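Troubleshooting log. The previous structure file for this entry was overwritten by mistake, so regenerating from the original sequence record. Sequence copied from the archived sheet and checked twice against the printout by T.R.
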Amino acid sequence: HAEITQPESLLHICQDVDIVFSSVGITKQKDGLTYHEVDFQANMNLLQEAIKSGVKKFVYIAVLNGEKFRNLKICEEKERFVTALKKSAIDYIIIRPNGYYSDMGTYFEMARKGKVFLLGKGNNRMNPISGEDLAKFCVANIQSAEKELMVGGPEIFTHNQMAKLALRICSKKEKIIHIPRWIPELLVRIARIFTSSKIYGPFEFVETVLTRDMIAPTYGTYKLSDYFSSLNNNGSHP
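Regenerated output below.
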């Protein structure tokens, strides 16, 4: 066990290790750390230890189109690490998934309450992927000659279709409320002025990626309907 933001705790952690996978990054943590401290510096700590220990390859889980979203706080430090990894003295692969089923769990949570709120018209498309399939993809591509790989799940949906799927599995009437795009755009602008990046970062990211197509090459077998059904059956929150 180690604390990745504390480099002294990582000493020798990569000893006799051939390949390091890192998906380290801030999601919903509320421990006071910044994107710079986690998404960039923590990964740098691990990278430096890996190089020192003679690790052969470093596999980093980034974000689909992250290089185009450097203006977003969530992507800024991830892409800064991507740049550092490319310049480092180690073989690497950067894997760019376009969203996880666990993220789509928000739709299921809303559907269970009887209505789903969507940004804009809900016609933008994406193919999120399960954590299980992403892990299989990472392992399957360990020896890939490609330096950057994009990946998504086996099915492409519009956000309207994902909302309808969640409502159907929850046995709820189809009730989808579309929020005009100018409302979240305005709220993000205000949040940038009056709050820290830890507060507005997730909101600006969501507002950006949910209002444009985010489609990656399809992979995997675990369907979104299976994921929603698993949440419905065990009654737990995603």
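The chain has eight helices and eight strands. Archived copy saved in two places this time.
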